[in-house]
Amino acid sequence: MTDEPRRTRGVQRGPRSTHVIESVRAAALTELDRVGFARLAMDAVARTAGVSRTTVYRRWPTKTALLATVVEPVLQRYDTDPDTGTARGDLIAALALIRANSALPEGRALIAAAGEPDSQAVVRAANDRTIAMLERLLTRAVDRGEITTDVRTVAYLAMQGTVMWPQIRDTPLDDAELERFARVLLP
Amino acid sequence: MTDEPRRTRGVQRGPRSTHVIESVRAAALTELDRVGFARLAMDAVARTAGVSRTTVYRRWPTKTALLATVVEPVLQRYDTDPDTGTARGDLIAALALIRANSALPEGRALIAAAGEPDSQAVVRAANDRTIAMLERLLTRAVDRGEITTDVRTVAYLAMQGTVMWPQIRDTPLDDAELERFARVLLP
DNA sequence: CGCAATGGCAACACACTGTTGCCATTGTCC
DNA sequence: GGACAATGGCAACAGTGTGTTGCCATTGCG
C-alpha cells in the first residue's frame, strides 16, 4: 500500500460549510423512519450521513436536539392558518393538516419520542404549535359567530386527540371520518 | 475471608418457584416509571428484582415481552363494562377508566412504547382491549335507543383519542372536561 | 432417592455512548 | 500570498447495556 496519509474525500470543509447540517438531517430522518426514536443511534446517523460521529455530537449533543432540528420544517406548516371562509371548512382543513403532518416521518418521530422523559420539551413545543393554530381557528369562528364558546371548548379538547390517536395506532382517519367529526362539532 | 463457596441467599429455587415473576414484574414497573420504556435496561430490572440477568432473559426474551407481562393486570380492567344505567353515565365512566389506566405507570409505559416498532403488537393489543369496551358500551346505547348509530360512529372515533392525547401531553382532562365532552356527544 | 426444573454466576463478543487530543482543510481578512 | 479561525475527520478511551452460553447449585416432586 502506498501510504497515502490524508486526503479530501470530496467533502467540503472549512468555515461556513453547510452540507453537514443537511446531510445529517436527511440521515436522521432516514434512521428515524427505519428504527424509531428510541433505537436511533447517533453512530448510525453519522455513518448514514457520511460524516464523523464527532461532528454530529458537536452540533447536536443529544438525540433530542437532533429531533428538534429534524422536526422544525414540519412544524412551520402550523404557522399559517387554513382560511376557507367557513368554520367547518377551516376545521376540516386543520384536521387534515394535523393528520398529514403526523403521518410524515417527522411526525412519527415526534410520536415515538412522546413517551421519552428527556424529549418532553421538544414534543411539548411541537404540540403547542399545533394547539396555537387550533386556538386561532376556533377563536376566529367564535368571533364570526359561527360557534359558541362552549363548542369551542369541547372542540379544543377533542380535535387534536381524535386525529392523533388513530395515527398513533397506525389506522389514520379517512376524509369521510374527518368530515363526520366536523359535522358533529359544528352542526 | 473464609471462602464460603455458594449459599442460598434467602432465595427460593427449584421447580414451581413463582417469586421471580412477581419480583421482576415489580422491578420492571419501578424501572419503567423511573427511566421510561426506551431506556429500560434488562440489566437494571434484574438487579432491582434481585435476580440474575440470565433468569430475566430466560422468561422474557425481549423488553416487549416484559412490557406485556407488566401491563396485563391493568388491561383486565377493561374486561368488565361500566354499567350505570344511562348511556351518558357509562360514557363518562368509560372515559374516566381510560384516563385512570393511562395515568398508571403501566399505562405510561404503554404510551412510551407506542412509537417503538417492535412493541406495536403489545400496544395494539392493549388498544384493542380498550376499544372493545367502548364498542360494547356504544352498541348497548344504540340498542337501548339512547343514541343513533351516527353518534356512535363519531363517539367511537373521538373518545379514546380525546382522553389519551392530553394524557400523553401530561395534562390530563379533569372531571368537568370529561362531562362537557360527554354532554356534547350525548345531548 | 434421583431427577427435572429452575435459577445463579461468569465470561464472552458486540454495539453504542460521550469525550478528548491531534491533525487536515479551507474560506476569509489583512 | 500568508496567517488564522472555523470546521471537520480520525482514533482511542472507558463505560454501559445486550444477548448468549457453559457450568454449577438448589429444590420440589414422584
UniProtKB/TrEMBL annotation, chains A, B:
- Signal peptide coordinates: none
DNA-binding region located at which positions?
A: 41-60
Keyword DNA-binding part of the UniProt annotation: yes
Key words of the record: DNA-binding, Transcription, Transcription regulation
Q: Name one Pfam family in it.
A: TetR_C_11
Q: Does the entry feature the keyword Coiled coil, yes or no? A: no
Which InterPro entries does this one have?
Homeodomain-like_sf (IPR009057), HTH-type_TetR-like_transc_reg (IPR050109), HTH_TetR (IPR001647), Tet_transcr_reg_TetR-rel_C_sf (IPR036271), TetR_C (IPR011075)
Q: Which residues form the HTH tetR-type domain?
A: 18-78
Full protein name: TetR family transcriptional regulator
Could you tell me which species this protein originates from? Actinoplanes couchii
Upper classification of the source organism reads: Bacteria, Bacillati, Actinomycetota, Actinomycetes, Micromonosporales
